[in-house]
Amino acid sequence: MIHKTLATLAAISLASAAFAETDVPFALDWKFEGPSAPYFQALDAGYFAEAGLNVTISEGAGSLDAIPKVATGAYPMGFADINSLMRFLDQNPGAPVTAVMMVYDKPPFAVIGRKSLGINEPSDLQGKVLGAPPPDGAWAQFPIFAAEAGIDSAAVTVEPVGFPTREPMLAEGKVAAITGFSFSSVLNLERLGVPSDDISVLLMADYGVDLYGNAIIVNTDFAAKNPEAVTGFLSAVGKGWKDAIAAPDVAIEALMKRNPAADAALETQRLQMAIDANVLTDYVAANGMGMVDPERMASAIEQTKTVYEFKTAPDASLYFDSSYLPTDGTLTLK
Dihedrals φ, ψ of 325, to 5°? Predict the structure, then answer.
């Protein structure tokens, strides 16, 4: 009887171990807004659970914020600007972090100005005041944008601002333009009462900037020990985005559970802007979500070199690893 009991307990223990979920805290780049809805959709639809993952999602404080969190192992996975990741790895050689899935194939980095304050094209920034939060991913890429667009940076007065005061300062006319993510700043300005026809959006990618945007990043030590968990996570993310593209309002419902104070209509619009301009590009429609084009990546590195002096020769393989991407069709967004 004792032997039977022990055998039963052992079987139960083995079964529990087999069904144990891997904990994966996930660090977002920003607040719980429209573009983060696909991750909550994946959570509520059970896609992470199906992959054997117990995922918790935390908001961030900018597109650079998740990089040190993941590099230190505080979070195994996160969402961050790949260009800032390049510089972080150059300054912290050997740090265990890399990108494994591109999400913003066309980055939302932008300069957002007001036409009534004289901002209609890049050259208009000369002689004006530009508000830029120091940790902002768009501000980090401004020197490349300035070089490609022929802006005399010395003629632009840059005023460091905080994220909470960025759009209000532009709405009040205290600055003529700001750096930010297009889908965030535009809608924030409209909510503050700035007429949509007074807002000018200078999307950096439309002015010769070849950079990629935000990607899913991973702690490489975690990935080496849990490769199936990483692939399962990326598959679930792909399903979440596919759902969001098909039915944005449903994905926003998942977001609203975590941020009930949000404006559902506004966040649906923000999500749709991200889908149309940044996620579902022609390249992604043709090739699926997650990959990067090697030639474009090489060009992005060359552009970065024009404004940032690498301590060691940049190596694209350090910044992006496609080996964890699922191959089961879950990243096809057609």
Answer: -65, 135
C-alpha torsion sign, points 175, 107, 230, 329: positive
Q: Which residues contact 235 (CB under 8 A, 6 or more apart)?
A: 47, 51, 326, 328, 330, 331
Instruction: Evaluate if residue 13 carries a pLDDT over 60.
Output: no
- The dihedral region occupied by 151, where left means phi > 0, alpha psi between -120 and 50, and beta the remainder, is beta
**Greatest alpha-carbon span in the chain:** 88
CB distance 103 to 79 below 8 Å: yes
Q: How far apart are CA 297 and CA 107, in angstroms?
A: 13
Q: Superfamily for 21-106+212-324?
A: Periplasmic binding protein-like II (3.40.190.10)
Q: Is 58 helix (H, G, I), strand (E, B) or coil?
A: strand
At residue 136, the pLDDT reads 86
Same CATH topology for 21-106+212-324 and 109-207: the answer is yes
Categorize the per-residue pLDDT at 334 as very low, low, confident or very high, splitting at 50, 70 and 90: low
Please provide the average confidence, as pLDDT, over all residues in the chain.
Answer: 93
Rounded to an integer, what distance in angstroms lies between the CA atom of residue 242 and that of residue 244? 5
